[in-house]
Write a structure and sequence with these properties.
single chain; Neurolysin, domain 3; 2 domains; three-stranded mixed sheet; two-stranded antiparallel sheet; 21 helices; about 65% helix
Length: about 475
C-alpha cells in the first residue's frame, strides 16, 4: 500500500464527513448523509487496507481504518439515528418541543416538576425511537471488531491507542473512593444556592439547571461572552496567529445540537466552533472548551502527515479544551475579564460542578468496561449503568440512556486522561507566567508550539517531557478541594 495516497484520500474523506457533521448538527440541514461519502472512499476501509496497515505498523492509520470499517458497515443506521434525533418532537401539555432542545429547555426551566416532565418525555422518546437503533449499532460494532480478530472493543482500543484501560480504571476507582466523603459536603451547598434544595430533593432532571447556574446570570451576561472570549485569545496572540481559520457559529436553530462541538473540517485551515446558547455561565464554559479545540486545530503544522493533524490521542486536544474551560472558574480570569470583585462563589460552584462531572466519568468508564466485555450480558446492562451512575452522583439515574450515554471506542477514557493532563499543563503555565498567564504573549507562544505538534505524541509522552511526571488521575484531587 502507498501510504502517501492513502493519507491523501483519508484526508478527503474526513473533510467530507466533518463538513456533513457540521452542517447537520449545527441545524443547517436535516439529513446526515454520510453513506455516499463512505461509498466514494470505500477502499480506505476494506479488509485489504486494514491488513496492509497492520503489516506497515501505523497504529493511528490502522485505528482510523477500523473505525471507518465499522462506520461504513453501519452508515444506514447512523444516518437514520441522526435523522430521528433531528425530527423527533416531544409533546408536553399540548405544546411540541424538538427533541434536541429538551436539555436546553430543562436548563432554563425554573420549575423542578416541569424539568422532570421534560426529561420523562425525552427518556420515553429515547427508549421508543432511538434505543432499537443504538442497540443494533452496539451489537454490530462488537461483531465487526471480533471479525477483525480482536476479542472485544476494549482489546482493540488498548492495543492501538496504547492506553491501559484497566490501569486508568483503577486510578478512577481510587479517585471515587478518595472523594466519597467530601462529595456531598462540597456539592450540597451549591445545589442549595443554585436550585434552592439539596440532595434530599435532587433528581437527574435538575442537573441541567444546576450546570446552567442561574444564580450567576448577572455575572455572566450574554453580551459579555463574546468579548471575554475574544480578549482572552487576543491577549495570548492565538487569535492573531489563527486568523480567519476559526469560525464561530453561535446562531440558535431549532435542529441545532444542544451539545457544543468543534468541527475541524480542514486542519488547520477551516475549523468550526459551534454552540447553541442557553444563557449564563454554561455558555461561557462551553464556548471556551470548544475554543480550546478550535485554536488547537487551527495552529497545527500543515506539514505534518494526516494522522498527526487529525488522528492520534484525543486526550491532547481535550486537554487544551479543558485548559480554556477552566478559565471560567479561575479567580484571576474572572476578575480581569468579567470584573468580579469576589470570584470565590463562582470558583466554589465550579469545583462542585467539576466534581460531579469527574465522578460521573469515573463511573462511566467502569460501566463501559463491563459493557464491552466479551461475555457481557446486555440484559443486565441498563440496571448496572443506572446503579453505577447513581452511586457516583448520588441521584437516581435513569436506565433508558444506557447506550445513548456511551461514546464510541472508549472516548470517555480520553476525557479522563485529558482532565489529568490539563491539570499539569495549567500548573506549568502558572509557574512560568504567573496566575494571569492567559494575558501573557509568552504563554501563548508556548501553547502555540505545543499545538503545532497536533497529536503527534500522546498526552502521557507530552507530560513526561513538560513536567517529568506520569499522567496520574490523582492530580485532580487538589482541584476539587
Amino acid at each position: 500500500m502507498d501510504l502517501t495516497d492513502y493519507r491523501a484520500e483519508a484526508e478527503a474523506f474526513v473533510t467530507a464527513v466533518d463538513r456533513e457533521y457540521y452542517r447537520h448538527y449545527s441545524g443547517r440541514q436535516e439529513d446526515f448523509d454520510v453513506e455516499p461519502i463512505y461509498a466514494r472512499h470505500e477502499r480506505l476501509f476494506s479488509r485489504e487496507a486494514i491488513d496492509a496497515l497492520r503489516e506497515q505498523g501505523s497504529p493511528e492509520l490502522l485505528e482510523f481504518a477500523i473505525e471507518g470499517y465499522v462506520g461504513r458497515a453501519t452508515t444506514q443506521e447512523t444516518a437514520e439515528l441522526a435523522r430521528r434525533e433531528a425530527t423527533l418532537e416531544l409533546e408536553l401539555d399540548g405544546e411540541r418541543l424538538p427533541y434536541r432542545q429538551a436539555r436546553i429547555a430543562q436548563a432554563n426551566e425554573r420549575d423542578p416538576a416541569r424539568r422532570a416532565a421534560i426529561e420523562a418525555a425525552a427518556l420515553e422518546a429515547t427508549e421508543r425511537e432511538l434505543q432499537p437503533l443504538l442497540l443494533e449499532l452496539h451489537e454490530r460494532a462488537a461483531a465487526l471488531v471480533r471479525e477483525l480478530g480482536w476479542p472485544s472493543v476494549r482489546a482493540l482500543v488498548e492495543e492501538l491507542s496504547g492506553i491501559d484501560l484497566g490501569a486508568l480504571a483503577r486510578q478512577t476507582e481510587a479517585f471515587l473512593a478518595a472523594t466519597e466523603d467530601r462529595y456531598e459536603p462540597l456539592v450540597g451547598p451549591q445545589l442549595e444556592e443554585q436550585l434552592g434544595f439539596g440532595f434530599d430533593r435532587l433528581r437527574r432532571s435538575d442537573l441541567p439547571a444546576f450546570f446552567r447556574a442561574p444564580g450567576f446570570d448577572e455575572l455572566f451576561p450574554a453580551e459579555r461572552r463574546d468579548r471575554a472570549f475574544a480578549e482572552t485569545f487576543a491577549a495570548l496572540g492565538l487569535a492573531e496567529s489563527a486568523g480567519e481559520r476559526v469560525r464561530v457559529d453561535a446562531e440558535p436553530r431549532p435542529r441545532k445540537s444542544p451539545r457544543a462541538f468543534c468541527a475541524p473540517v480542514r486542519v488547520p485551515d477551516e475549523v468550526y466552533l459551534v454552540i447553541a446558547p442557553t444563557g449564563g455561565r454554561d455558555d461561557y464554559e462551553a464556548m471556551m472548551h470548544e475554543a480550546g479545540h478550535a485554536y488547537h486545530y487551527a495552529h497545527v503544522d500543515p506539514a505534518l502527515p494526516f494522522e498527526h493533524r487529525y488522528l492520534g490521542d484525543n486526550s491532547v486536544t481535550e486537554g487544551f479544551a479543558f485548559l480554556f474551560e477552566e478559565l471560567t472558574a479561575d479567580p484571576e480570569w474572572l476578575r480581569r475579564r468579567l470584573g468580579l470583585g469576589d470570584p470565590e462563589p463562582v470558583a466554589a460552584y465550579a469545583r462542585a460542578a467539576k466534581l460531579i462531572y469527574l465522578r460521573r466519568y469515573c463511573a462511566k468508564l467502569a460501566y463501559e468496561l463491563e459493557l464491552h466485555a466479551p461475555d457481557a450480558d446486555l440484559g443486565r446492562m441498563p440496571a448496572l449503568y443506572a446503579r453505577r451512575l447513581a452511586d457516583a452522583v448520588r441521584v437516581e439515574w435513569p436506565e433508558q440512556t444506557w447506550l445513548a450515554d456511551v461514546d464510541p471506542f472508549f472516548y470517555a477514557a480520553r476525557y479522563l486522561r485529558a482532565w489529568a493532563f490539563e491539570t499539569h499543563l495549567r500548573a506549568l503555565l502558572r509557574e512560568r507566567h504567573g496566575p494571569a498567564w492567559f494575558e501573557r504573549r509568552a504563554a501563548g507562544d508556548e501553547l502555540r508550539a505545543l499545538m503545532r505538534e497536533g497529536q503527534r505524541r500522546p498526552a502521557h509522552e507530552l507530560l513526561a517531557e513538560l513536567r517529568g511526571t506520569e499522567l496520574d488521575f490523582s492530580a485532580l484531587l487538589a482541584d476539587v478541594g
